[in-house]
Amino acid sequence: MYLVQFDCDLFMVIRIKEEIGGDYLGSDSESSYRSDEGGFDYGPVSDWSYHTEGFTVYILDHKSKSWEEIEDLDNLIAFVSENYSRGVSLALDKCLKRNCIYFTDDAAEFWLSKSNCGGLDMGIYDNKSTQKWQLYDGDMCTSLYPSIWFIPHF
């Protein structure tokens, strides 16, 4: 879940992921999820994978103090990541795709694992048409912690 502020509005963006393969959080042997140094390693992730299916977006109704689901972001573009999320107006940058969510890979299970790595689940999601575009299509991955967005101040 990400909180995105834009002007006076607050949006809650929920990421929907599909996990493919083995049960990466459950195991008969808890010790298989510990690293040699005693820290949490998240275990053998090479048997499974994941990808973003989509997002559900809510806007906070300040009067009723409740979240309302929305499908059209209008001229808002949302950048979401583990480290930082922000909304940007399309009027300020015509190079961005309208009504879209730009997302980075935030699967800590992959980033922290010694046996695999993350950084492959990054893309653009059109909130209205539910179409996705992958930002990175290679097979190279990284063990560095999740990426962030470099967003200019308009």
From TrEMBL:
- KIB1-4 beta-propeller domain location, by residue? 2-126
Under InterPro entries, the record lists: F-box_BR-signaling, KIB1-4_b-propeller
Pfam families, from UniProt? Beta-prop_KIB1-4
For this entry, the protein name equals: KIB1-4 beta-propeller domain-containing protein
- Name the source organism: Saponaria officinalis
